[in-house]
Amino acid sequence: MTNPEDAAPAFDAQALAQQYIDDIDSTYKMLSFDRRDYPNEADFYASARRNADAGRHIMDVNDRRLQQYIYPYVYGRRPIDQAAFEALRTFAALLADNTQQQDMMLGYRINRVILPYAQAQGDPALVLPLLYQLGIATYSMGWYGITEADHMFGSECRRYFQQGAAYADRYAELTDAKTRGYVLRCIGNQSLTIRALDPASTHQHFDELRAELAAFDRLRAITPQGQVPWDAFYTAMYRNRLSAITMIRRGHQLTDQEMAEMIDSAEHIWRAATRSGHASAQTTYLYLATMWHAHRITDRQLYGGLMESVVGSPMDDYSTEGIDAHITTPARIAFYIRYMSFMSPTERQQRLASIYEQVMKYAMNFHNFALKSTFSKRLMECFVDFRDLPGEYKFSDLLMRALMAQHVPSYIHSLVVSRLSVHIAGRLLAAHVTRLDGVRRLIGRDHDEAVIDYVRQAALLHDCGKISCIDDVANNTRQLFAEEFIKIRTHPAIGAECLSNQPSTAIYVDVAHGHHRWYNGKGGYPEDFDAQASPVREVIEIVSIADALDAGTDFIDRVQSRLKTFDDIMGELTANAGTRYNPYFVNLLRQPDQQALLAAELEQARRDAYAEAYAMLQ
Questions:
Q1: Quick one: which of 121, 228, 117, 210 has its CA closest to 171?
Q2: Helices in 328-445 by DSSP H: which ranges?
Q3: Are 511 and 546 in contact (CB under 8 A)?
Q4: Is 26 exposed, middle or buried (0-12, 13-18, 19+ CB in 10 A)?
Q5: I want to staple 458 with a disulfide (CB 3.0 to 4.6 A). Which of 244, 279, 297, 511 is the partner?
Q6: What is the pLDDT of residues 114-141, one digit of tens each?
Q7: Burial letters for 522-539: b for 16+ Cβ neighbours within 10 Å, e otherwise?
Q8: Long-range own/partner contacts, residues 169-172 (CB < 8 A, 24 or more apart)
Q9: What's the rounded Cα separation, in Å, for the pair 297 and 289?
Q10: Is residue 367 predicted with pLDDT exceeding 90?
């Protein structure tokens, strides 16, 4: 029998890529849920079902196309020849140029497999674009977590940029300006892979930038005037250097030379902004914060300058600059306000509360779908800087708004899981299966109402970590790659890290961290979290069951999986009782009367969740 992959089918790479891009954009639009597309909440709910069916159909068709034309090369089942190289390179380049919703992982997989062929040809014009695109893709896809302390691709990202930077030795023979530009970008991006997270890496970051700027100086001397936009390259390098402000804010000391370089960089970007006639909120922050840490300006000048950049931006500016002015900069003010010597403690608290309320006002009215990822991630990051606010402020509202903006289906899922968890907890308490004593001790209250309220809030926030990682995989019109499964599995740890930053949400950390761990402790993720040792272990087990019920029967959140019936999921819960799920909880829920109540609650919870999401859509 002949293997169908033996003969490589010819395909129009441009047409195939354009169809794939159109499908990505269609899926993205379906899952963005623009309220203007739905006249009422009933149509919104019905459309979600239609969109799920359409999304699964698109995914099936795309998988067949990719299996026929792309995957045989990606998985090494078919050799790369000249025709395949040109087709795959065209396909990947068009994916990278799709500015709305890029499928970086597919582009990465393709470029990684065609790179050796390009290198064997010995043509820098073929190799350098691939090295640069691979470096950018691994950099963008790899960071996760709030502090960005970990990188999934590690040294691979750095290696691509270093290989591209090595072409500086052949710079003089590269007469093409575009090819030279790739060399310069690879040189400048090497330092991106060094995160200033501790004194040692901070010093390494400065050393790397020094070497990169020296390389720029050397290459600039042999570059014809006007061929390269050097001002833009140098400004980007100086802005990169100023990222060390993060380390200064953590109390780490820079050397005198490093501080002098920070000042020089801040002055450079400020002069460039002055020449252009516009200083963005981000530029203003970098300049003022650097000068304040260098003792060049006063507390009043720092506070006044930052506030001016906020006040000067309209509240209905939902551009990237608007997000910086109304979310990022206020969060930075919240950090620095504790050091403002001209304010009393009471005044600091009052101003902090006022700033937070303005952030919430802006966040609740935000409606720019094109920037939803930027908006939600910035909103999540600012959560940390408001930690000095008293506990009565509802930080959970901020997180849920970020989740809503990032991925409406995940927001709906959280509402449903919260409702089901409350239902399950209520059934367990009423049947005296458990008293949830761990919760009572944690919150210091013995009333069932307080326990149920804890369950409600913990379940609502269980998936908040998805804000940092769902965007890379949520709208894919294909089955996920292994790396994407790895990344999505980081969401429990990310959520736990986020919740731990606020006293009012720290009590929910274990539920976010452990909701994918198994009852018997022998499976699930993350492996380094011991859910069995948690004081709220039983809540984790309740949320795990509720999560399984909604995830398995959900018709929009997971187009990569197949819809199951309620009975299917109850069968899975029963089959896995004692291993994955708490057997005592499952045994109660599978009783006929309890099962009927649970099924009705699931259906109503989902309808109510869609109604709430519809009301929040702008």
A1: 228
A2: 329-336, 345-365, 372-385, 395-406, 408-430, 437-443
A3: no
A4: middle
A5: 511
A6: 999 999 999 999 999 999 999 988 887 7
A7: eebbeeebebeebebbbb
A8: 170/124, 171/219, 171/222, 172/222
A9: 9
A10: no
Stretch (H or E) spanning 343: none
CB 467 within 8 A of CB 402: yes
Question: Could you tell me the two tokens for 355?
Answer: 């700033």
Return the number of other C-beta atoms located less than 10 Å from residue 217's C-beta: 11
Count of helix runs (H) and strand runs (E) in the chain:
29, 2
Output b/e per residue, 266-280; b: 16+ Cβ within 10 A: bebbbebbeeeeebb
Q: What is the DSSP string of 529-558?
A: --GGG-TTHHHHHHHHHHHHHHHHH-SSS-
Longest CA–CA span in the chain (Å) reads 84
- List pLDDT tens digits, range 10-42: 789 999 998 988 888 777 777 667 667 777 888
Residues 6+ apart with CB under 8 A from 450: 440, 443
pLDDT band at 562 (very low <50, low <70, confident <90, very high): low
Point out the least confidently predicted range of 49-53, 452-456, 533-537: 49-53
* pLDDT at residue number 8: 65
Contact 168, 183 (CB under 8 A): yes
Angstrom distance (rounded) from CA 308 to CA 303: 9
Question: Once rounded to an integer, what is the mean pLDDT over residues 36-59?
Answer: 78
Structure-token pair, residue 474: 């949520």
Question: What pairs with residue 144 in β-bridges?
Answer: 150
Q: What is the CA radius of gyration of the chain?
A: 26
First vs last C-alpha separation in the chain: 58
* Strands 150-151 vs 143-144: parallel, antiparallel or unpaired: antiparallel
Instruction: State how far the Cα of 473 lies from the Cα of 105, in Å rounded to an integer.
Output: 9
- Residue owning tokens 């999921």: 569
DSSP 255: P
Token pair recorded at residue 61:
């068709």
Q: Report DSSP state, residue 252.
A: P
CB distance 217 to 199 below 8 Å: no
The answer to whether 16 touches 88, Cβ cutoff 8 Å, is no
Record the pTM: 0.88
Contact 488, 469 (CB under 8 A): yes
